[in-house]
Amino acid sequence: MRQVAPLLEMRSISKTFPGVKALTDVNLVVREGEIHAICGENGAGKSTLMKVLSGVHPHGSYSGEIVYRGEQVRFGDIRASEQAGIVIIHQELALVPGMSITENIFLGNEPRRRGAIDWQAAQRRALELMERVGLREDPDTLIKDIGVGKQQLVEIAKAFAKDVQLLILDEPTAALNEDDSRHLLDLLRGFRDRGITSIIISHKLNEIEAIADTITILRDGRTIESLDVKADGVNEDRIVRGMVGRELSSRFPEHTPAIGEVFFEVRDWTVRHPSSDERLVCKGADFHVRRGEIVGFAGLMGAGRTELAMSLFGRSYGTWLSGRVFKDGKEIQLKSVADAIRHGLAYVSEDRKSIGLNLLDDIKTSMVAAKPSKISRRGVIDPVREHRVAEDYRKSLRIKTPSVDEQVAKLSGGNQQKVVLAKWMFTDPDLLILDEPTRGIDVGAKYEIYGIIQRLVGQGKGVVVISSELPELIGLCDRIYTVFEGSITGEVTRRDADPELLMKKMTAKKKSPAS
Amino acid sequence: MSRVQDLQKNLFGGTTSNVRQFGMIFTLVAIVLLFQAWTGGLTLTSGNLIAVVSQYSYILILAIGMLMVIVAGHIDLSVGSVAAFTGIVVAKVMQEHSLPWPLGIALGLLVGALIGAWQGFWVAYVGVPAFIVTLAGMMLFRGGNQYIGNADTVPVPEGFRTIGAGYLPEVGPDTGYNNLTLLLGLAACAGMVWREWRARQTRREMNADVAPIWVTVIRLAVMLAVIVFATLRFAGGRVGTSLPISGIILIALVLAYSFYTRNTVGGRRIYAVGGNARAAELSGVKLKRVNFFVMMNMSVLAALAGMIFVARSAASGPQDGLSWELDAIAAVFIGGAAVSGGLGTISGSIVGGLVMALLNNGLQLEGVGSDMVQVIKGLVLLLAVAFDVYSKSQGRFSITGTLMRPFRREQPDAPTAPPGAASEPGKAPIAG
């Protein structure tokens, strides 16, 4: 490891929000030219720390000092920190969907000539920047027409346009598939070789282990430790121990499967893309689920897993072309979400904030939202029953909240996910489809969610898990289907499941593609 | 929790819009007191209160429907025109075909329902934004009114006028008050006590914290005092006047729609659609049906408001209902509804409507011209919503909170978010 004076030093940073101490005496030392990872569970204070650094929380709203390039700095806003070369890329990308790549790269930073925007210069410079981040696209392409992975690259190009020296990435790979993630990580390594320092916040510990030089672990708003990856021989378990303060013996709870007969079957499911006539998002998919079984769906982003699930769930996506659904040997019609709920289906969406929950609702209202008839008589809601139901779920799922009257928006990601699970458990489903059930939630909450899933199959329900994290599927599922371009390309049992085999099947066409 | 907070929380209900609602009631009381002082006690006389109700009940009726439209994430610009169109149709048919007035009312409601179905169809099933549909409706039905009425006024028969200009009849012994109004006030008091008792009962059944009894008593005492005061004022007016029939219609509507929006599955669906349409859809809510219903319901209420107005002014004219939509929308937003939908209450909108009505009335009593009335109403709307926006950006800022700070000994309740919730970008405003 090179011995250089630190590029950045944050000394005993404390930050208090009304009633909450978010950061307590946090120290962070980042050396020039390294990739520095910040780890911690949700709510550990990672993002708050980055907001302090980037001036989102301006000087004066926190205590402690920031030394950057040997000088004490006091950023009043983001602009000030950007001028110093510190650029933060948030989890939610700050791009304008209806504008082109070029326009987005130079948004607020347009090259000017005599007061007017010099689009030619912008175009030239954009191509240069895109080259640097490995983005091959027409610079006039609109942001909404490129995938999340490429959008992320645009964000980074935008950072370069501002002459970045310290790049901060908040959960950069959360929404990316494996390929795009790998590309992004390679890119970060390339930056390191060129002397650009990065700070990366991520929940994906395998990535951190692979890429970081130094790891600082936060827990409950305090610095727990700073690890030198090479010198300390850091591995995932070591990071987890630092994050949760104890050794997690296993990432998955103990579970003995008790699998019954096939009760849910889908045959020849074919669905057309909602806006494109030629594109099929599901092509003749066949699959089945047994009682008490956890079935995984593995596939790359855009493989059609979510589309399959949503089209099954009351035709909520695309145009249904063909396919039949059988439950307990009888064919059922699922023409609307109400039908699907009536027939015992539940779908927990991958994006709980934008389509899974009404964030304005309180916890109890959210929990009964999918089947209010269960707590009402002739359309009139019984508040006492509603409250009891919600309290029961709060206790059994261990949702951390003082009261079920709180707004769901105030809960952490893991607890919100538990509310969504409660909402669908309340409908008494026979088959639960969980789309990325642990995305964006921390290790401890993940473990609890796995436990809930196992409890559900223990009651004889079937559970379908869609996930982009192969270790999760392999650890959790009894059987895994692989999906590629709308077709089911393979079926792997727990015994045979390993990442290479799955990866091969989820990136390869079936030998005889259904047409 | 300190006593002051206890009181604040329990007096105004534990809802999310609690601070907002308190602010509104505060404003309303301030306006009443201001005008009371300014007009030398004229505002709270029997005659004036009765006049306010009969003159402005239309804003409140429209505000009920508009609240639901806005909660569902839409807007309705056509209510004034729909009211005027309904008025002229009903007046014309009654005049030319000597239709009995009760049938006239039924016809009016039917016209409202048809117009609502028309607008609801475009909004819910075709997917044209309600702003456009109702902007079209605004022109369409204003033109329709002038076409049918030849831009002239058409009188309505005596019986029909009851709904706008009628009062509760005088019956029973001479008490110096209108007996039916007194009875109504008594019933309201009893209802209030019963409701309070039920609410405590419910809290107990939930094993939730029940407000201390003294809070309940204060709360009840304040509300009963308001009811008794209002009852005596309305019952003690000039002989022959009392609580107007339109006021009774209004009260019935407020009670019914409050119950519907708060306590029924159907009402909850409107909030669900406005809060997050896609999430609602994926929870089995039939989006189109809800949208169709709120638009249709609005037009029916607009028709009713139109008929009450026509009945009060004894004739339907081409200028009826001009800019009513703006009064109704302003009332709803002053009452704390969110522009983006999903938030708002009937009671808030009613308070907002009362603020508008009392402003109109008070400024008129003082002889302020309609030019300045508009200026002042505009400023009130702007300030009310600005206060809302400001208090949201400040987390939990509230007038009361600021006023009460010197008396507070304990720390406020620790916000429920875990320490780092503030670290998630989307949530920052709540903790920060």
TrEMBL record, chain B:
Membrane topology, as annotated, equals: Multi-pass membrane protein
* Keyword annotations from UniProtKB, A to Z: Cell inner membrane, Cell membrane, Membrane, Sugar transport, Transmembrane, Transmembrane helix, Transport
Q: Which residues form the signal peptide?
A: none
Coiled-coil region: none
Among InterPro entries, the record links this protein to: ABC_transp_permease (IPR001851)
Which stretches does the entry tag as region Disordered?
Answer: 409-432
Q: Which Pfam families match?
A: BPD_transp_2 (PF02653)
Q: Which GO terms describe its molecular function?
A: transmembrane transporter activity
Where does this protein chiefly localize? Answer: membrane
Segments passing through the bilayer: 21-38, 58-91, 98-116, 122-141, 210-235, 241-260, 292-311, 331-359
Return the GO cellular component terms, semicolon-separated: plasma membrane
Q: Where in the cell is it found?
A: Cell membrane
Q: What does this protein do?
A: Part of the binding-protein-dependent transport system for D-xylose. Probably responsible for the translocation of the substrate across the membrane.
Q: What is this protein called?
A: Xylose transport system permease protein XylH
